[in-house]
Amino acid sequence: MRASTENENPNGSQPGGVWLATGASAGIGRTLAESALRRGHKVVATARRLADLSSLSETQGVAVFPLELDVNDEAADADTVSYAVETLGHLDVVVNKPIRQL
Q1: Which CATH architecture has domain 18-95?
Q2: Which residue intervals of the chain are DSSP H helices?
Q3: Which of 22, 43, 50, 58 has the fewest other C-beta atoms within 10 Å?
């Protein structure tokens, strides 16, 4: 197994892939979304509040597709996947950031 390079995603495909990243407003979800964008991928970025994605959209431009999503809403989850596939043609990577509430 070889390490991925800056221009590849973790499964070895070339730039231009489509990622769906939940929890992309902060933390690991944000870091993964930014990493994918730096590698030339498009990202459907979700957060509970759309406003929390504004800085990502402003800095990354047309490669980001921000959506408001509560991952606890199964119908909204399905709608988000459908939107991504209908808008971008396919999904290559889905990152579902775990949320821990105390």
Answers
A1: 3-Layer(aba) Sandwich (3.40)
A2: 27-38, 54-60, 74-88
A3: 58
Over its C-alpha atoms, the chain yields an Rg (Å, rounded) of: 13
C-alpha to C-alpha distance for 4 and 75, rounded to whole angstroms: 35
- The torsion angles phi and psi of 20, rounded to 5 degrees, stand at -115, 120
Strand partners, 21: 45, 95
- Report, as ranges of residue numbers, the positions in the chain whose pLDDT lies below 50: 1-13
Domain definitions of the chain by residue range: 18-95
Lookup result for tokens 């990243």: 21
Calpha distance 80→24 (Å, rounded): 14
Both structure tokens of 86: 């209908």
Whole-prediction pTM: 0.81
Quote the pLDDT of residue 16: 83
Distances in Å between the Cα of 71 and the Cα atoms of 2, 28, 44, 64 are 34, 16, 14, 19
